[in-house]
Amino acid sequence: MKDWREEYKNKVCSSDEAIKKIKKDGRVVVGHACGEPIELIEALLRNKTLFKKLEIVHMVAMGKGEYAKEENKEYFTHNSIFAGATTREAANAEYGDFTPSFFFEIPKLFRKGGNLKPDTALIQVSLPDEHGYCSYGVSCDYTKEAAENADIVIAQVNKYMPRTLGNSFINIKDIDYIVECDTPIIELKIPTIGEIERKIGEHCASLIDDGATLQLGIGAIPDAVLTFLKEKKDLGIHSEMISDGVVDLANAGVITNKRKNIHNGKMIVTFLMGSKKLYDYIDNNPEVELYPVDYVNNPFVIAQNDNLISINSAIQVDLMGQVNSETIGNKQFSGTGGQVDFVRGASMSKGGKSIIALPSTAAKGTISKIVFNLDSGSAVTTSRNDVDYVVTEYGVAKLKGRSLRERAKALIAISHPDFREELTKKALEKFKKI
Ligand code: COA
Question: How far, in Å, CA of 417 to CA of 303, rounded?
Fold first, then answer.
């Protein structure tokens, strides 16, 4: 049998050479979040005149997102599956677009018969092991499926990419072009936890019992929740992603995963976003396993964990309990991500709870996030049938199983005091009494 090292050598080329193999008006899927292959994206930009509206499909873009800028619209068109700071403008402009999807269904879109089958996958992986397998590192999620369905796979092989375990590997034989480049892995800025987040964190933590399995999103609220879990016992993780805060709780012996029904003793995630502290922790660590998102975020898989608690945030919640987590009016602000996957998984889990945790106001207290009606043009991310708990700094509203009138009353009670009178007036016009 041919030694994989020989095959590896034959596939090594420069990033500029590799980029020239991409079909000029085809479709490229780019590795997700902190797994973005920086050097390949830079080469794409350097060689942009080779392309004619090359479609770039990307979820959270943590890099510069220059392919999504208006000045590059002749060469690239951005199809976003989760708008972020650098891609939001394109997702809402005539030179870009947005594709709504549950996170767990994105891999299906890349397969034959899906609408987003890639011509090329641009991925970033770890150095190969002795058997010729590279790890997808911090981004297994949809990236593995994109590579498995693309006609051409171009991989940035990076010594800084941690080797994560689970089902998160690609063999050298399945990569077409290898670009060796050791750029530091993108790190997530650690959010500042303020007084409001701290209060929300404390309310959320009150809903978490010993032995629960957690899903936590990104940002100050999930991080604040973690700071209130130090006294808990035997927590587990089955989450779309984890960040640095989880490392401290694992090291402190709070997260043991010992009471998980599936993958006992292991944290299960599909991608990772954090600092070098997290990346060092997960490198070759058998306590953390990454699997593709159509497994990790599949509500039926999530639900196999008893006492699954999911915590996600929102832009607005209306008095019926409809949750908009992704639009500001008509504009796409972010995306559905895994929110609904976990809300539904938690709902089916024995003893499970889903929590939508949000500050009661936005824009320095001038806008209430608890609203009578969602703004015109808003997407409903989590429906009123799916929603369970809503938490603000003013407390906890339990909505599942509650009537519309009961929901209105519970939500007004956790809205900011400055907006309660107006919300009550509108609720009374609708319900006559609350
Ligand atoms: N009306 C107008 N503007 C609003 C608003 C509202 N109701 N709510 C928030 N905003 C503005 C804020 O003022 C802020 O603006 P700024 O950047 O100019 O300060 C901006 O929107 C972001 O708000 P913030 O509360 O800081 O957002 P966040 O970073 O905590 O993210 C979500 C909140 C809802 C956007 C984010 O959690 C998300 O995209 N969720 C959907 C996906 C998901 O849940 N995935 C699950 C697992 S990761």
Answer: 37
**Rounded to 10 degrees, what is the CA torsion of 36, 37, 39, 44?**
-80
Handedness of CA 159, 219, 225, 216 (dihedral sign): negative
The neighbouring-strand residues paired with 301 are: none
For 222, the domain range is 195-431
Rounded to whole angstroms, the Cα distance separating 169 from 125 reads 9
Q: Are residues 44 and 102 in the same domain?
A: yes
Give residue-wise pLDDT tens across range 179-197: 999 999 999 988 899 999 9
Whether residue 114 is found in the same domain as residue 70? yes
Q: Which residue among 315, 326, 393 is best mutated to probe the pocket of ligand 1, counting the most ligand atoms within 8 A of its Cβ?
A: 315
Out of 42, 55, 145, 240, the active site residue is: 240
Is residue 283 domain-resident? yes
Tell me the CATH number at 340.
3.40.1080.20
Name the β-bridge partners of 148. Answer: none
List pocket residues of ligand 1, CB cut-off 6 Å. Answer: 217-219, 240-241, 312-316, 325-326, 328, 333-334, 337-339, 362-363, 367, 369
Classified as helix, coil or strand, 123 is strand
- How high does pLDDT run on average in the chain? 97
For residue 2, is pLDDT > 90?
Answer: no
Residue pLDDT, tens place only, 339-388: 999 999 999 999 999 999 999 999 999 999 999 999 999 999 999 999 99
Q: Is residue 110 part of a domain?
A: yes
One domain, residues 174 and 200 = no
